[in-house]
User: Fold these one by one.
Assistant:
Number 1:
Amino acid sequence: MTSVFNKILIPTDFSDYSRKTIECGREFADLGAEEIVLLHIGLYDPFILSLARMSVDEYVEKIKEKAENELKELAGIVEEKGLKVRTIFLATYTDPAEEIVRISEEEGVDLILIGSKGHGWLKAKLIGGTSESVARLSKVPVLITKFQVEEKDGEKYCRLTFERLLDRVLFTFDKPEISEKALKILEEFSRVGKVFLVHVVEKRNESEIEEEIREYGDFFDGIANAEWKVLWGNPVNEILNYARETKSSLIVVGKKERKLGKVADSLLRHSEIPIMILNK
């Protein structure tokens, strides 16, 4: 059976964070994914190169050989799961987020899987950075991984905060309807793990709250193989608390076109577990 995530793009900067992201990407083989595209973007500044009296072609050739060797090594991680792998190296001086989205469209991928941090990960570079921009610009779902950064013997490393990425997935809803694409994703995730559905009612009068709870209860009852809950309070706080309560491994939240919205943006900032952004 063909997966809704048949072809996946994973950008990498060869950091420990992106390597862990690639390891997570192997899980999609369990859903029927067939191909992973590994992308490395080599950034350069023409002005800096001119000061160093080095041509663009000379610099690109220098970094290309090293990048292709590292891409080949990372491809082996994915091939162990029986997935087909393609590697792409791109040198550019433009915005990497725009290049990632452009390549995702050219390749016809179904998902972009990207780490929330890269070589600048110790600085917690996410919001305003590449990952957030990709999530905002992309027309396909974007899954942003998050890992615990720890120190041992003076070395920094990433630790998984979950056993399996797709083990316990929490879907958030802000209205009682679901797109055909989102329903397919929900159904696929329910085949390999536990699925939770949640809607948060913001502060209103008692009669409106009761009506909304009944409306969402009827909606959620129509979705098989999932536990659901309607909560009352601040959406971001309640979603994060419920994710901790259910020991969720992934939060799925929607966006409108190229706008993340307040809830999705805040979840990206504050969640300690991975976030998947879907177009509503």
Note: The first helix runs from residue 16 to 25.
Number 2:
Amino acid sequence: MHIEEIIQKIVPADRGCMKLAQTRFDNLIKPVGSLAKLEEMTSRYCGIKGIYEKEDLDYPKRDLLVWCGIEEAAQAEKIMHAKWPVNVLAAETGAKAVALLVTLEEEADALEEGAALVQELVHEKGLELLGFGCLSNPDNEMVRTAMTGALLQAAAMKVPVMLDGVAVCKAAKKAADMAPAVLDYCFAGHVSAEPGAEECLQELGLTAPLRLNIPDGAGEGAAVCFTLFNAGIKAYKEMETFEEAGVHAEMKEFSLAEQSKKGAKA
């Protein structure tokens, strides 16, 4: 499938489901908004899936894709043999770290190759969430272009991607320039210690829940953030609203009305 066809399949996340999911969070027995980014991630995931009932929401099967060029072949081999930090961190959340070596020389080929790789992995493994890391220099045009194609394909398949590092964020910006709705499917895993990392996320309009001072975007931050992704879903599924708990009168300090008043005064 050509990139133009992939782009045509990309649609925004369902805003109605996102709003209903956030309403459920607001009505849980807790202060409104107290789970912060966990609520935002889970509500947006509901919008991507087009669901909001807690019974319909499951923990997504996920993998972590680490993109690299020929210069990083030795590191890629270590990942493929599960001998790199990202392997351990990904496995903790049930994910497998996969190294993807980009050796193409034409931008159009790299764009479609990245898309094809994601399509194959998602179909073969039934993946519903991806993490992207990159071992290459952010200026490696072919690797960045392959990731752009991959992000477009993921969005077309309604598979969210946890972004990690400057190179991945630059690829996301390029994908968003081609199809703005791609950003509905992009989550920021962490702010790396790379120069320009904060600015790259700001340009995408994304904020990250973690700042781990990891010096690169090789995927470790995305792997750790998978744990937070699970935590938001767990709260959504297992916490009760006042109605579900059979409480007919909310504790005043936790009521939505009171919390809304506090928010307005802040």
Note: The chain has two domains: 13-56+239-265, 62-228.
Number 3:
Amino acid sequence: MLFYLTLIVVSLPVAIAISYAVAILWLYIRVKHFYGRNYLRFYKLSPAQLWLFYTEVIRAVVLMSLWLVFKSNKNGLHKPSAPDKPAILCVHGFHMNGSCFWGLRRRLEQAGFATYSVSLGRPYVDPSKYVDSLHQALAQTFMNNQQQPVHLLAHSMGGLVCRMLLQHYPEDKHRIKSIITLGTPHHGTQAIGDFTLPWLKEMFHPHSPLLHQLPEFSQLAPELPVMTIASVNDLVVYPAHRALLKNSTRVRFVTISHMGLLLNSRVKRRISRWLTQST
């Protein structure tokens, strides 16, 4: 009996790792073919780069699972220590909560920024339902920092929620200093096919009427500095130009996964440099 239990304990992580490897390889080939069919430039990963890409995804899954357990709290907001720069409010994406920013927040706090994160609410609902949560978190962060404007840092779906915030609460633009989005499907993503669940299609499909009717930051608050970041090797939001907005500082990376945008040191340095320049 002990032998079989040991075998199960040892085999389970191996089986999970192999499953992730197969899924990532399949997605990589699918995305690569999409770029090729549409005559778009794709950054082809070497076997070594593909291995590093895979380990980055596994690392992200492990770290974010640990942060979910140990770094979450009831309201999703964390008090920073000794801030000497404007505050940053982090806005998570689909099927996540505020804890996913923990590693990036540590880097930004080391650079002297006060950081907060918000947990928007339960997943699998219309993202417009998250607008009130973000509005309240922004107001609280604004008050906690001597009523000084706050940087918004959003990952994936969080960037769309930020656009909805300014659409529903236009007065909030006076509480915002700048906006950064990481891998946000501003123009939808090809990952959402025609046979996906209707509510997912409504929000993330490239031909979604809701997305096409949602004003961009330049229309909602033209005076706000905005940076949109994408990865050509993002297997969730693609092609990369769908994560970029006109009238923003547009940044493209390669060899970085969708979750890796929250962990990669190159992305962290670019964000820190932007925030320092915007301060």
Note: The chain has a mean pLDDT of 87.
Number 4:
Amino acid sequence: MSAVPFTKYESTGNDFIVIDNRKGIISQALQSNRALWARACHRRYGIGADGVLFLHKKPKFNFEMIYLNADGAQVEMCGNGARALAHFAASLKLNRGKNSMQFFSSGVEYQVKLNQGPKKTWPSIAFPRPNSVDAISLKSFGYSGPHLYLNTGVPHTVFVLATLAELKNLDIVKAALPIRHSMLFPRGTNVNFMAIEGPKIHLRTFERGVEDETYSCGTGAVAAACFYRMLLATVSRVTLMTKGGPLLVTFSREIPWLSGPTRAVFKGMLSLTQLSE
């Protein structure tokens, strides 16, 4: 097939190319073509996106999610992408009239609640309890404030800065690159910097695979909220202010739920032939 339909989504500024692949219109070989999907995500030569989401069938689940970063590499999880794909799946009636769904991504089962948030339009995703917490020491990077390594589906380092002004003035690319490519992380890591302002967290994230700051990062928000909860154990609800808008992480029996706005922006046809040239 030379052209395939797609929907462009954004979740607090984290943007995605969404493709319904339930009928296998994209072969496994084509789906694994990193150069093609990196070009599709390019903001000058393609559609422009932080990643690509494929919706697949999966027995006993509402759907399966396959996620590619902007560099075309498949990774285990994307929180904002999962919310976008859940919204897309519900628009295709894959929820079968229910307010909940189950989906599968890289060997992990995830739960979805629909119709959440102030306008009852937000999908909310439950994450497994973070693992590998503090398995890697971050002291060598020279930050005196609290810091932590944890995995929320993908690896994250989180650094707490002293003030909001310090966070706003941070040259995040310069600060994040040595950490992103450190020998401590053979597969790389996402890098988060946060500042605490009362009940809110202000968060900036440098994403592996995008190789730049994104407007928002869902797995990064979960990582930051989990760290905040470790610092203040009584917290059960955390609002995170990102460049692209607010995200909310709530805790139910120690399980973090990520929610926030997501929407379809436009639809189109993606020319695979032209992208391959």
Note: The chain has seven helices and 17 strands.
